[in-house]
Design a protein that fits this description.
alpha/beta; binds N,N,N-trimethyl-histidine; 9 helices; 36% helix; 4-stranded mixed β-sheet
Length: 323
């Protein structure tokens, strides 16, 4: 039997509603209209995202898993961490491949999953501490863009940020995040970063425009979240999902387009605004990377790349870098 996991909550209980109101006022109250992707992940959204990862067109999850299946031992052997932190850990499903590799070397003292979803994190922490009795599980309920200062100190750390989630940050946000992460680590600490790679636009577009419409439902769910949380009156049928590939920025751009002119009231955020016919709300970007440019971006904030692993087809990369 494992020990009970320790769960530290660094989110203030009103954080979600306060931050949602701020984001909605800032993003939807001005043009171009935007909404940050973190609000896609309520219970329904998390379930839809899970369904996306099982779609035949959505290759990133499976590719990243295959890299971990093949190279988890090499990754663990390449770094000397005794504390393993995972940002945006969710259920830590793929991460078990790394935990297995760490356990067979008997070197890991502590696993620190960090996620905003309290319930998902508690459940995962409980399962992990039962499955890995030799590892202390110290979960942190927090937002990885805000709470890097709450990571445990002392040991040599490896911070994993998997799934290609870094691709959802805009260029400036990404630089700020990587800089803050580097600042919160000590020289010698490690970063393991999962990124989707640039490839033929056809395959990328297909991954975000699946034939069953699961991605469309996932992206539209943000309107449902606003209707429920802030009493907004979005008519979901009045919007079409428009995913497109931006070749200059090398990223998918996922938007919702108003098919008719309409007035939207969001009482919980105290705003009302008009959308013209064809006006788009930008909900998410998903940037694709080139290994050499990623190396430069990491170097710019003080991370030196030690090794890059890709799957056989070169679709996805795991980059190990050292502060
Ligand atoms: C959150 C990065 C894993 O950008 O591919 C999937 C989110 N959005 N389909 C991605 C997403 C639409 C996904 N990640």
């Amino acid at each position: 039997r494992g020990r009970e996991p320790v769960v530290t909550v660094v989110l203030d209980p009103n954080w979600a509603s306060g931050a949602l109101v701020d984001d909605v006022r800032r993003g939807l109250g001005s043009q171009p209209r935007t909404l940050p992707p973190k609000w896609l992940y309520d219970d329904v959204g998390s379930e839809l995202f899970d369904e996306i990862t099982r779609l035949p067109e959505y290759y990133p999850t499976e590719r990243e898993r295959s890299i971990l299946r093949e190279h988890a031992d090499d990754i663990v052997a390449a770094c000397d961490a005794t504390t393993f932190v995972e940002l945006g850990s969710g259920t830590s499903d793929k991460t078990r491949l790394l935990l297995d590799a760490f356990t067979s070397r008997g070197r890991l003292a502590r696993f620190v999953p960090v996620d905003v979803s309290d319930a998902t994190l508690r459940q995962a922490a409980k399962e992990l501490s039962e499955r890995y009795p030799s590892i202390r599980v110290e979960a942190v309920v927090g937002d990885f863009t805000l709470h890097l200062g709450h990571l445990p100190r002392g040991d040599r750390r490896l911070v994993a940020f998997l799934g290609g989630t870094i691709g959802n940050l805009y260029v400036e946000e990404r630089a700020a995040f990587l800089g803050a992460l580097a600042d919160s680590l000590d020289p010698g600490d490690w970063l393991l970063l999962g990124t989707d790679l640039v490839k033929s636009p056809e395959r990328i577009i297909a991954a975000y425009d699946d034939s069953r419409g699961v991605t469309a439902a996932f992206v539209s769910n943000c309107l449902r979240v606003l209707n429920r949380e802030l009493g907004a009156d979005f008519d979901l049928d009045a919007f079409t999902y428009v995913p497109f590939w931006d070749p200059r920025m090398e990223r998918m751009d996922l938007r919702l387009r108003a098919e008719m002119p309409q007035r939207v009231a969001i009482p919980g955020a105290g705003i009302t605004f008009d959308l013209f016919q064809g006006e788009e709300i930008r909900v998410e970007i998903s940037t694709k990377f080139r290994p050499d440019r990623l190396r430069d971006e990491l170097a710019a904030v003080g991370f030196g790349v030690t090794r890059v692993w890709t799957d056989r087809d070169g679709d996805f990369a795991l980059t190990l870098a050292r502060r």
